[in-house]
Amino acid sequence: MEHMELNGGCKKSRVLIIGASGFLGKELYKTFKADAENYETYGTYAQNTLPYCEHLDITAVESVKSIFQKYHPNIVIITAALTNVDYCEVNKEEAYKINVIGIRHIAEQCKLYGCTAVYVSSEYVFDGNNGPYDENSVPLPINYYGESKLAAEKIVIKELDKYLIARTTVVYGWDTESKNFMMQLIRNLSNNKAMKVPIDQISSPTYCPNLANMIKESCDLNLVGVYNMVGGDVIDRYSFAAKAAKILNLNPNLVLPVETKTLGQVAKRPLRAGLKADKIAALLKNQPLSVVEGCKEIKKYLADK
């Protein structure tokens, strides 16, 4: 599918963000929309109605076909997913329908329209025995959410020549409608409520606007392949929460370190995980932000509100 010819022959890409009403999706929509010179930006939602987005049920093939017919995208960014790890473990059929079948429907249309697919994946494709992982590490998921994300990755790789898989994890930031880890922390500590946080879950917390900028720049550069797009630190959840509390002037004593096994979570968690971001960092101006840098951005945002 050819790019739109605008501004005296300047090529403008049509980018379709599937899941634009979600936490990352909203940030991506805003990021691409800000570059109106190079992108026409469109978005879809499944449940959370947004005035600038169109409804899309990725599990219904006709719904997917009609969206592609309407927008003829050049780039399709897939953030839509069932992401509640414990819910996926108990509701495998529903998780498969959304996280695997839904992605297959999108990949088929991307192939038909010759567009690039950007699929947002997860560190949960790994078992968490010997992280942090690079892009060449062999995936081995230990919960159903991870299995569904890996199955979707394989579909994208098999079906398409032009694809970008962005593996990320613990995406955090300020969004009052979001249940991301940072918002849970702020809500609890602001109300003087203690919060149990695992000391044995090691990961790579990723500041949401930073991730959106990395994805956008990767599209600008036409990058293809698998890339880890995460923050600059590999850190356990408790240390992350304690640092965030201090920076945001919340009481770090309300953050209680516990072991994962005491939390009674249904799905297994990859404990020693995290992702190495060296490959993407070598290519982008937008560098992975550390936990301190990300939290300072939130503090600055709140001060400006």
From TrEMBL:
| Protein family membership | Belongs to the dTDP-4-dehydrorhamnose reductase family.
User: What does the record give as the function of this protein?
Assistant: Catalyzes the reduction of dTDP-6-deoxy-L-lyxo-4-hexulose to yield dTDP-L-rhamnose.
Instruction: Tell me the CDD domains matching this sequence.
Output: dTDP_HR_like_SDR_e
Q: Does the keyword rRNA-binding apply?
A: no
Q: What's the source species for this entry?
A: Methylomusa anaerophila
Which keywords belong to this entry?
NADP, Oxidoreductase
Q: What is this protein called?
A: dTDP-4-dehydrorhamnose reductase
| InterPro entries assigned | dTDP_dehydrorham_reduct (IPR005913), NAD(P)-bd_dom_sf (IPR036291), RmlD-like-bd (IPR029903)
User: Which gene is this protein's source?
Assistant: rmlD_1
